[in-house]
């Protein structure tokens, strides 16, 4: 179908005059008439009929004008959508995040971004470190937000948001609460941990291997971060976890630190993207917003 002819027809139908439509379109009236006759011939159905000296819409012409109105309204919406996307005002950002930033940072970061970008969809999936990077590297995510100290894949760009320390913690009434002990004694405790592939578990086991110690017994394993903390608060077992996650629990007396001699492990939270890839305006805006929030609040 000749959409140019349809557009000319719609303008005449909407205005109700060949002459006025030609003036608005800045072309000659004979050119408009010629193009519409050509369009009528193409579709094989008359669009106008003579009523004295005026040309009025046929029944089919009236119905087609209604369809054309929907079509060209949709066209405007599509053009606006493209402009919004190009300008970073509409679209989707897929975020794969590990549990620590998902619980600690992302709710505030996402809310702050959405307040300024209501039309942008944030699709957030939470998983362990391995799965988060798999999603990024296999184009299932645009951004990975990672908390850990493990090796950095070569095909990933990193921007470090903040750094904190990993602490050993127990329930407030645990016999080791606020004590200073050796690592050998600490790892004899049952530990409440996340599943294999989680960064905290890998950090603890690596620390044990580096000190030629057997890793601790994982007495209970959970997929979520909050479940591990709640279990330790109840008085059973120990955990090795980001200080940012547990500092409030320690302050309010639910948890206590165990100071382990010679152990100081730094933990980093970073935003990751695929290396050597130009990021969309939306992704750039989200990353910049994250940086601004971290600088302001941490």
UniProtKB/TrEMBL annotation:
| Keywords for this protein | DNA-binding, Transcription, Transcription regulation
State the signal peptide span.
Answer: none
Q: Does the keyword DNA-binding apply?
A: yes
Answer yes or no on keyword Calcium: no
Any Pfam family matching the protein = HTH_1
Family membership, please give it.
Belongs to the LysR transcriptional regulatory family.
- What protein name does the entry list? LysR family transcriptional regulator
